Predict the structure.
Amino acid sequence: MAARAHLRRKFLSAKVAVSGANFGVAETGTLAVVESEGNGRMCLTLPDTLITLMGIEKLVPTFTDLEVFMQLLPRSSTAERMNPYTSMWTGVYPGDGPQNFHVVLLDNGRTNVLADEVGRSALHCIRCSACLNVCPVYERTGGHAYGSVYPGPIGAILSPQLTGTTDHDDPNASLPFASTLCGACFDACPVRIDIPGILVHLRAKQIDSERHGLPTGQDLAMKAAGWAMGSERRFAAAEKASKIGRVLGGATGRISSLPYPGSAWTSSRDLPSPPKETFRQWWARTHAGTER
């Protein structure tokens, strides 16, 4: 109630509001927002000026097409027959709602995605989150680990295409590999986006670009790891050296900040501190005199 009272004053006094949109209808110019709380409706109706940003992939041709998606989205997202709040607006009406309205159609890499005959189906996404609900990887890692506003399986195929799959300095470039390819997302998707197929397609593009470029940070890290693991003595020395990481973890036991290139990981993910005792040390202490 305290939050409601505070926010209500904000809504009533705001002169300008910025919103998104779930769908836009080319035939009528209608925009639609679906939600569960009602805050969106207050944002859309109370201020004098409304600015709406909408991705170009959210346009549907006719109002009849909108009817289909209005039934499909809540059923796939929250298993409801319809959303608690569905707001639609078409232009400006004197004395009713915002008196100034601006719509911004956002490309931001979407036409580049459209140019890929395989990857373009990612733009069919209606943001229902059905793929997130069934993904075993997303269940374990959560949204922030994806480093993008689009997490989960759909984020793993959409974010790399929006920012570029061949930019090795972009953390999104590795997202197509963050999947087991189990296919649960494809089974749950209401618009039948072949997410596993697109993941394989993007992996192939990424590997092909690496063949014709300089070694990436991941390449160098894997070569260093292979060199260390190729010798028992080198591996044992690396285990001992890893204890330095316990200082970075502190009392929490989680390393949350590393210098570059480790910062590419810790900027959105924690790293467990190395254990106090390695397996080799534990074995030597508990199985003295026995063969390994």
